[in-house]
Amino acid sequence: MPHRSHPTFDVAVVGGGIIGLAVAWRAQQRGLSTLLLERDAQVAQRATHAAAGMLAPVSEAHVAERELLALGLASAARYPDFVAELEQATPLPAGFLRCGTLAVARDRDEAEALDRERVARAEMGLALERLLPSEARRREPGLAPTLRLALEAPDDHAVDPRTLAAALADAFQRAGGVLRTGAAVANLTSSADKVTGVELEDRDQLLAEHVVVAAGAWTPRLGGIPDAARVPVRPVKGQILRLRDPAGPGLITRVLRMDPGYLVPRGDGRYVLGATMEDRGFETDVTAGGVFELLRDATELVPGISELVLEELEAGLRPGTPDNAPALGRGALDGLHWAAGHFRNGILLAPVTADLLLASLTGEPLGELAAPFAPDRFTETDTTKEIAA
Ligand SMILES: Cc1cc2nc3c(=O)[nH]c(=O)nc-3n(C[C@H](O)[C@H](O)[C@H](O)COP(=O)(O)OP(=O)(O)OC[C@H]3O[C@@H](n4cnc5c(N)ncnc54)[C@H](O)[C@@H]3O)c2cc1C
């Protein structure tokens, strides 16, 4: 039985990672009474806690993923305003760092691959500046002399996801949103194909007109959603290290992307070095091999890394869908909305996800940008797919 003393919210958001927080803040800020439910004792302790925070649509663009690139560029373009608006709404910093990105090659093969990427991106209208080693080292003296080539993406910046999440949680509550931590949702509840709210693991039932699923890699564990209405999400493990320079900032000032990892400066002498990509279910062990590979590759490019203090080792679970792109918008049940499956780009995609979900919640059209990310794309019949192919 529902506890009648509970109010009915306009929106209940399941999951307090970066996606749930951004959606909940936007919804509450725009006048929808919003309840955010997070099963952990604090928000943003999962993928968001592990994430490096690169906002890198240009340097990460896959030629084959043009629609995702368009979404990433749209979100990156929103970031400065999103952060400025957030910092008006809370005294906490948002953690945004305008630093740009250098993609770097260590040997001839990598340099050739990097040059091919530059040409492919130029065909997509994305400008990357080609830097010979001497110029790259002038801009980043911490790079090794063995560097072969670098490409600069001046507009690919970074944010500290933990700082951003704390700011979002504060802004959400200041706007009047209700945050419940330690609240694990067991089931969505519905009646006659219309969502009525959620049931917690402790059996408490909460009423809401709309439910947004933002449960990251744990999305498939939510009950109460018919099989045909589900979005398939799998966990993809990433190991990542946090380092600190006792000498302060300056070793590296831009994000460095190498094959396969990256080094992200926080601007204050702290660095994030990531990340592995592993299909290991929900296992989150940090392994000697994973740490070794990350450090080996990075110290080859930035020898000064070996002097840094190793502060933290962590593994997080990226929420991946079969096409590695998120599910955004209305689901198959009336009142069900998806904001799940952001895989490697959830920090980058948080602002655009928040805006698209607000449109979804208020019944407005999501527009062309969102069309490729419709949640029902996974429930097409095989026949439809064959015809489409
Ligand atoms: C190592 C690593 C590096 C990354 N680097 C970047 C990067 O540089 N840039 C970038 O854009 N992205 C990056 N990502 C990806 C990014 O972290 C994710 O796409 C993003 O965090 C997904 O956010 P989320 O809110 O969907 O998931 P999460 O952050 O995992 O949050 C989901 C939340 O839902 C809660 N939850 C789950 N089930 C329930 C339930 N039943 N009831 C209540 N709460 C529930 C969980 O406890 C969790 O807090 C990285 C990821 C990893 C692992």
Q: Per CATH, which architecture of the largest domain? A: 3-Layer(bba) Sandwich
Mean pLDDT: 94
Q: Would you tell me the structural class of the helices and strands?
A: alpha+beta
User: Which percent range describes the beta-strand content?
Assistant: 25-35%
Number of discrete domains: 2
| Spans where pLDDT lies below 50 across 5 or more residues | 382-389
| C-alpha geometry | globular
What is the percent of helical residues?
A: 25-40%
Major sheet size, sense and barrel closure? 8 strands, mixed
Number of strands: 19
Bound molecules: flavin-adenine dinucleotide
Spell out the helices and strands N to C.
EHEHEHHEEHEHEEHEEEEEEEEHEEEHH
CATH class of the largest domain: Alpha Beta
Integer-rounded radius of gyration: 21 Å
Number of helices: 10
* CATH homologous superfamily identity of the largest domain: FAD/NAD(P)-binding domain
N-to-C terminal Cα separation, in Å? 48 Å
CATH fold-level topology of the largest domain: FAD/NAD(P)-binding domain
